[in-house]
Amino acid sequence: MDQQHAPRPAAHRRAPSPGRRLRRRVLLGVSAVAALALVGGGVAVARTVVDLDTGIHRSDIHLPVAGASASSSAVPQAEGESNILVMGLDSRRDEDGNVLPAATYQALHAGDGSDGGYNTNVLMLIHIPAGGGPAVGISIPRDDWTTLPGAPDGNAEGKIKQAYGYELDQTLRHIVNTEPGVSHDDAYQQARSAARQEEITTVSQFLGGVPINHFIEVTMAAFYDIAQAVQPIQVCLNETTSDTYSGADFHKGLQSLDAAQALSFVRQRRDTSGSGVELTDLDRERREQAFIVALAYKLRHEDVLTNFPLVQHLIDTAKQDIALDSGFDLLSFAGDAQRFAGGGITFQTLPIVRYGVEDGQDVNIVDLAQVRSTTAALIAASDHPAATQSTTPSTATTPSTGAAQGTAGTGGAAGQGAGAAQGAPTTSGVPSTTTTSAAQPLASGGIPCVN
Fold first, then answer.
1. Which residues lie in Low complexity bias regions (predicted)?
2. Do residues 324 and 214 touch, judged by C-beta distance below 8 A?
């Protein structure tokens, strides 16, 4: 098998290692591309979206829809609603499987093209309701243990992030071994499509048959160029914290980060300073969400998108490092998503019961019924915010035990609770900040303070 494109085995260790600590950088690429999409609108942006659309990677796959068959989605979907699955890959290559420039590997300290793998280390379902209501982003912890519907590579169960890599490996080996007339590049792209299909089907069934209308896939490579182009980015922390593993060293409150510091911000899942601050992998989910919000805020309020050379640079980067389904209308999505950066989307993370070990791997043990009821409630709150504002579920877990805390939160899906960021900058030009906890929805529109 051509080693240039051969997928590498998924890493299973929870203990920190250089590869594991570095692979979370992929989520920054997701954050940057997602935030760019969330502030779309206007003639200039429309033109750049059309430009992006001409060179983007597309995949013609079956997407789970409501009521299509007995094996597909069991969750109804109203006309005009849309669910988009964002997948961030742990890959050190572009969408064609090519190695990145040496300068990029050196800057990221991420090894080389042989490092990393094809786990979907970022999984986020974005629900866009009909009629212009508030959207919701639902983060799915990457290590949740679940059934893999297609049993790829003979694995009937696994971490939810592993469905992609297992299927890519299985399909690529099959094509190479049985269809010698197919070029390796074509075989690789077919395997990527099969991997997307398996991951999307796995997520849909895990969430209780939720229809998935579109997907956005992002590799790690996009982040370096994007972060360098738009830095500094403002974030806010509830406590002063540092971590020798990720390189994090942050003070409490609002602060501006360069690209390297942004990497540390989203990678940190522990505090090694002895301060008593407790962090877990779920806190990194929270930081992913906060980073998307902060980046979207910057793009919107600092008129970054009026810098046309910069926008073109971001688009050229995205063409190499994102993929979409064949029916994804970027221009339509830009119009739908224009309101998000101003406060029209909130984020929450699905609950886990505890940490455990399955098949020799450190995993998240979940209550599947709770996962599905929470997902349904968050989608319902997005569709009918006035009716569900007081009953939106909390999805928090305690860092020390991982036990789920209750089911009633104070914030609605539109971010009306205590955890909502306020959105508008103050009269001094400093953005507003709001302290948030994992029990509250994280709203766009300002700079939320997180653990």
1. 385-407, 421-439
2. yes
